[in-house]
Amino acid sequence: MKPTSKNGMRGVLWGVLAFALAGAGCELIAAPDRTLIPGEGGGGTGGAGECAVAADCPDPGECLERACVDSVCSPSPVAAGTSVGDQKAGDCQVVVCDGQGSTASQADDADLPVDGKECTDDVCTGGVASNPPVSEGTACGDGSMLCDDMGACVGCIVDEDCGDPTECAAPKCNAGTCETDFVPPGTPALTQTDGDCLVVQCDGIGGTKVENDDADITDDGSDCTLDVCQDGAATHPNAPSGTACADGGFVCNGAGACVECINGGDCDSGVCISQVCAAPECMDDVANGDETDVDCGGSCPPCGTAFMCLVAADCLSGVCTGNKCAAPSCSDTVENGNESDVDCGGNACPKCSTGKACNGNSDCVGGLCTGNTCVPTCTDTLKNGTESDVDCGGSCAAKCQNGQVCNGDNDCGSGHCSGNVCVQCVGAGDCPATGNECVVATCTGNACGTMNLDQTHTLSTGQTAGDCQKIVCDGAGGTTSIGDATDLPVSNTACLVSPACTGNPLAPSFTPATQGADCTADGAPPNDVCGGGANAGVCVECNSGAECDPASCNGAMFTEAATCSAAGSCVAGATTDCSASGQLCDETLGCVECLSPADCPDPGNECVVATCSANVCGTMNLDQTHTLSTGQTSGDCQKIVCDGAGGTTSADDATDLPVSSSVCLINPACTGAPLTPSFDPAPTGTDCTADGTPGGFVCGDATAEGMCVECNVDGDCAAGTCDASHTCVP
Q1: Predicted confidence (pLDDT) per residue in 547-591, tens digit
Q2: In this predicted model, what pLDDT tens digit does every residue of 166-175 receive, in sequence order?
Q3: Beta bridge mates, 690
Q4: For residue 21, what is the enclosing H or E element?
Q5: Which of 70, 591, 649, 697 has the fewest C-beta atoms lying within 10 Å of its C-beta?
Q6: Distance CA 386, CA 628 (A)
Q7: Kind of pairing, strands 228-230 and 665-671?
Q8: Per the confidence metrics, is the pTM higher than 0.85?
Q9: In what order do the strands lie in the sheet containing 139-140?
Q10: What is the CA radius of gyration of the chain?
Q11: Strands 529-530 and 539-540, how do they pair?
């Protein structure tokens, strides 16, 4: 690394010093350790000092003053409250030195926030700037405008600022701007001249205009002329003939005159002659005078059917009904028409009763007319002959009704005669059944009646077993329900036990069975346990998720554990296809990367094995305890093992004894460090022809130990001598 220059290091130290002063608010209490500056300080080369005077030192900032102390730049803080040069105008603050080399902000209520608006004040309050609006209504602009309550210079604040209204125009202030609302054209002005057939109206732009008004008419004082406006001018044409009037007559004649009549309808007599009403007559074809209809009734001849009348004498039929002469009828209480007596007989009216006049048998109720008088029969509506009462009993076929006179039971339709009167009953058994268990038939005073049973009578039908109630009569012919503590409820579930009738009124109650109790007997699978809490007394499927299907795996499909709903039903868990994300299914954890190392990819290195830890695939480097299955060299006293870092290394293996390739090498062993193969040489002269070495016959001596040679001594040669190379020479 290139050494930092002297000036460069000085700059670094000043920067560190300024940062420390500004950031920590600490005073400079010592000079820099000049031994750290290359080329200066102790052990240096004896160079000149950092400064001679303060001006030699760099500018440390507005709140630090240059100072040179013992040839070292040592800036000192300026006095607290000293104003700095960089200020923000109009923020009601002043930035000053804090006496520790840094700056601080202080309130300056003289540093007003001038916004340049004439309708706002520029205010500093305790160092906080604001521009509140001036008083509403303050003149602004060219003097014709006003300040509003939001600090804006506007044309108006209220409608009155925009001028006075007129009948047809209303100045108004809208969002600070004067506008004029004009009265819609056609609106009548307040000042009008009555009866001039004209109307003064607003013209829609603030002025007025005059229009024709045919409704603004003038009355000329005559009942028989009309008061009309036409195109703005008054006219008085004659009123139509028949118009009512009171100017010397009663009706206008259409020529402007008021006369007594125009036609008979204008006269009480109904007769008008030369516009004058005439006196009534019976032959004037008008209903007048005391006539009840045209020329009849009253002092005139009687009227025919349907003509008006006041009394019976006004009618030929002698019957006046509803002020009209009625045609002869069988109910008008007058003998008229072809009746043989009043309202009976003849071919249209009912038959006459006994004693009434008749003209033949057909006129009589009994069918017998003798001497123009109806005589007794069983149908003559009179009690006569052997009858016990009118037309009943005795020899008559008709039986008498209850309350009629009888002489025996046979005279009565009821079959009961008591005290010579037909009665409804003699005993309750004679009366009809009521069809209501709470109302029983009675016979009181020979009249059938009923009696309402009270609550002491319990109904024989309609009861609901086990509802703690019983239906009884209410004493008014109806029924009511009252408590019955013996009518215990019957539980329909194994989850409700100890049936009882409690409360007021009594109602069925049970004690909920213990949560978790078996309710299979309810026969409502899958519900088989009694619930608790909100489900107490109810046979539910579960009380907790532990009673529902656990999480499971079906191949790669993971199904979450079922949950138990608030209603006590198992809600199946969601199913996820783990294979879709290349994962396996674990019943406890769901979709995971692996279940065993066999699920993880083979690293392809015998010294690095796949692992499955917390269901996540990983690898593990084998150490020297693992000997490689391949790549070994037999008999080299070594074995290739893993090095714990994913690679291999060679380690001593004393069991990997070398294999001798010669009879002349015996006693194989592993020796040294690291272990290497070693042998003992066979005794000199040992036969080694078995080695098959060309020219080799005996094991060598000390100069050829372990080697199969031709000779060691001359005696080993068939002829000649044995030289130093263990070869027989002639």
Answers
A1: 999 999 999 999 999 999 999 999 999 999 999 999 999 998 899
A2: 889 889 999 8
A3: none
A4: helix 6-24
A5: 70
A6: 147
A7: unpaired
A8: no
A9: 139-140, 145-147, 153-154
A10: 71
A11: antiparallel
